Amino acid sequence: MCGIVGYIGNKQALPIVIEGIKRLEYRGYDSSGIAIINSDDELVIHKKEGKIVELEQSIPKGVNFEAHLGIAHTRWATHGKPTTLNAHPHIDCTGKIAVVHNGIIENYKILRKKLEEEGHTFTSDTDTEVIAHLIEQFYVQCKDMHTAIRMMLKQVEGTLGIAAINLDIPDKLYAAKRGSPLIIGVGEGQNFIASDAAALVVHTKSVIYLQDDETVEISSNDFTIKSIADDEVQREIIKINWDISMIDKGEYDFFMQKEIFEQPTTISNAFRGRIMDMYNTSRLGGISLSIDEMNNIRNICIVACGTSWHAGLVGQYLIEEIAKVPVRVEYASEFRYRDPILGLETLVIVISQSGETADTLAALREARARGTKVMGITNVVGSSIARETDFGSYIHAGAEIGVASTKAFTSQITVLFLLALLLGRMRIVSPQDGAQYIKEIKSIPGKVGEILNMNDEIRAVAEKYKNSTNALYLGRGINYPVALEGALKLKEISYIHAEGYPAAEMKHGPIALIDGNMPVIVVAPDDFVYGKILNNMEEVKARKGKIIAIANEPSNGLEDLADDIIFIPRTLPALTPLLTVIPLQLFAYHVAVLRGLDVDQPRNLAKSVTVE
Ligand code: G6P
Asked: N or C: which end of the chain has fewer CB within 10 A?
């Protein structure tokens, strides 16, 4: 949610910071802006409503942009409309201090009123502008920018990642963090600040994750990190193992398309090295519980948002079915504000692709504050959720850039399956059944590949339904969350209203919507409820609904009921979501492309929701 990049060094700052925010455009893209200190010692600011390409195209001619220090921002509006005026950077009254900000300043109204009473003039509707004026106020008093930022930090409540520059100090870049990610990129003769490693990997793989309530002063060759108590802090430089192909579209038109097609590899990466063939079980190295503690888990509470929440629902079916441990799944935004009942024998699992979702982070803090052990299932190494959980497992899906999550979903399910197998083998799963599960998970990447080969067929189905205004997704059992996920994918990127339902619930309401224009996508693998779901299709057919079935083979009259059928390979019922979701992802993708929409940057959404 919003992206920050800052640069100081021997190269030209402007192209580097613009290229950097383009890499972060998936985090927010309603307006953008830059601030540089040029070779004539001027602070130059340029901002623009719309996408970054519009910012680039509108860069004024005849202005000196020769600079070695600059900051940039791509915005997802929270406070104030997405206008050029509200775009970042924001400046103070002296016009010398420029600030870009991710997060929300919760007490900004009080601070703004106070600052206005003290004579400060505000020019935007944003919460961010108070940061610029507060830094100004303290800088005037102490004449030290690093101290002024620290003092600002003591005044503000809420979340922030900021980068700032000051015309009085043209050889320093500043940043501060609380609750919103911020990374220092360490280079040679140049250093960076960014809200996301994706902006840095083309320049350096040496990074430092700033911690909450830390500030940093950065020059071309050095940096000093301080705590809010003004103590100097030493932080380890971490090598990130991303390569540039992870953040490039390569041969694909969209990141989402690339990420859908990566799934045979990403699913393999999620289970590679985590299977113990000799014992017919799995091994999740990150789990630091003793055998006794593992045996003492009596119930599990999974907490997540969005697609990760859907993966959690699949996890509920997996863990209950395989390990017979009771599981409940909660929205993080609800969990954090109700009074959840967590026992001593409860394990809380938080699932988050980004590892930065504000509600999930708050939920994990609440669970830990109650003394409950919290496991994290995340993708982004070193993310806030990865750091704050007691232990966890990475899904190793690589950078996911498309706003609509795809490969993270299947990798999350893979890790939840491994956990279910581990807990199951410690409880009731026989070696023979364990071996069967292992054999089957190993076959999944190949089967996903077979479905991806049906891309053209799925595009042809999308062509038929691309002008629909509504769609209903039905599934039963472990494929009910897949129906929810399929509907979410379509909503997110094609703006077609779509609902997911447990198939039998259809008759308690949604059936009223079915007519000859309503596509009903039915997830119907050949499991023990297949017969039941055929009955649900009959009910749709009787109301002239159009049925698209995801099934294993023509049987029991399916061909007479369904208008279109996408046949997928067979697997164990527990693993079907890893296959059934693939055609739904491709269907949503093709519908959106055929409608001429920007698949990777759908309107109003953001990849990582770091505000409440
Ligand atoms: C946003 C994204 C979704 C994602 C959700 C949870 O809404 O657009 O794709 O599923 O956040 O994100 P997380 O990073 O916690 O999995």
From this structure: C
